[in-house]
Amino acid sequence: MTQLDGELSPPFEIAEPAEWRAPIIFNSPHSGSVYPQDFLISSRIDLAGLRRSEDSFMDELIGDLSRRGFPVVRVNFPRSYVDVNREPYELDPRMFTGRLPSFANTRSMRVAGGLGTIPRVVGDGHEIYRERLSVDEALARIEALYKPYHRALRRLINKAHQRFGTVIVVDCHSMPSVGVSRDEPQRPDVVIGDRYGTSCAPLIPDRIEETMRALGYSVGRNKPYAGGFITEHYGNPASGLHTVQLELNRAVYMDERRRERGPKFAQVAADFATLADTLATVPPGDLGPFQAAAE
Length: 295
Prior knowledge:
By secondary structure, the protein is α/β, with parallel strands linked by helices. The chain has a single domain (2-79, 145-283), classed as Zn-dependent exopeptidases (Aminopeptidase, 3-Layer(aba) Sandwich), CATH 3.40.630. It has helices at 2-6, 37-42, 47-50, 58-63, 109-112, 135-164, 203-214, 229-234, 250-253, 265-279, and strands at 12-15, 24-28, 72-75, 96-97, 133-134, 167-175, 190-193, 219-221, 241-249, 254-255, 260-261. The strands form three sheets. The protein has a seven-stranded mixed beta sheet with strand order 1-3-2-6-9-7-8, sandwiched between helices. The protein has a two-stranded parallel ribbon with strand order 4-5. A two-stranded antiparallel sheet has the order 10-11. Helix 7 (203-214) runs antiparallel to helix 10. The model is unreliable at 290-295 (pLDDT under 50).
């Protein structure tokens, strides 16, 4: 696995401020754009096609928040290679030669859609690989990339939780401006996902919606995106562990066809800073009781 060691070094980065302003972590798990050469060779889709799955530039939009006192986590490898916003072993047996381990989740809705931990398709439904992968290759990617990322994220969450008694993870994504289905209504500028009220205290999405509407954005909740594995797995409001997913409409900040930053890019980054500053004013005591940090 020399490709993993070389081209994907570092596989993810954490920009932690010298002094935390508040227990708020901004995370960008799907903006990675470092494509290993062996992955490109094995793909039947060209690089431009693979990049359609990226949350392009989302890591840049939140990148300066570390200077304002908020930790920022960014993944450098692409989600089409390994998707950290899935269970560790959501794997499609049709993709692999050999037998998957018995603990693999082969029947989830995400696997059925081709979007497991090792995706079978890119976001628009095109098959990625020319040939089946070996099971060992899939497991090696999970060990080398997925697990270290989640260990580091968990340590960061625990650090904030132990210090402040609570923590908010803002999981930052972007969405295509137009849905796959013609029946889907026009997408708003921002979709807030809180797993239908289960991943964080109601105060958090309320404050986010209020702030973004005041900045001129249209806002929706939980449709078409309620939050993925990260939102669900790390959200435990009763223990003071809060996660919320933000999906930003790509048409707001970029040219989707050319994959370039748009004229409003700098303003959108400034608006994220305003949102971070606003969330920092929420008293930790309003977000739930302190309990032992999650393992």
